[in-house]
Amino acid sequence: MISTILATIATVSLAAITLLHGAWVLGSTLWLDRVIPRTPDSVGGRPLFAMPRGLTGAVTLVFALLALLPGLTLGWLPLPSPRVAPTLCLGAAFIFVVRAIGDFRYCGLFRRIRSTTFARWDARLYTPLCLLLAACYGLLGIAPH
Predict the structure, then answer these.
(1) CA-CA distance, 86 to 70, in Å (whole number)?
(2) Which end of the chain offers a freer environment for a tag, N or C, measured as fewer CB atoms within 10 Å?
(3) 3-class secondary structure per residue, 6-37
(4) Are the CB atoms for 67 and 22 separated by under 8 Å?
């Protein structure tokens, strides 16, 4: 029962993130001001990076695969569950923990820059979501199937 809840949370969250990234690949600018870290306004408020469409497409594909992983692990998909599925879940958990810890400057639990729009969204949504997803994937990785 708990594995089903964890898998549902992970799948729905990553599916939504996949759709948003897909919209960006297609040219949408929805919420871009909230998802790209910027330098503090005192330094000009410049974006730290520009995401090329191809790289955004690759990230979209990774998120889509991560959204499918819980279903594959629990046998929801009409595919044989690979023996490595639990290990892949643990790998995903590790990636989300690393993201939640952050870069010690602009994002994550230990960020120093806290005055930007991105930093506020990171504190309220992105970092807690990464911790939640890390817990979901971690528990799916160690749960008996």
Answers:
(1) 9
(2) N
(3) HHHHHHHHHHHHHHHHHHHHCCCCCCHHHHCC
(4) no
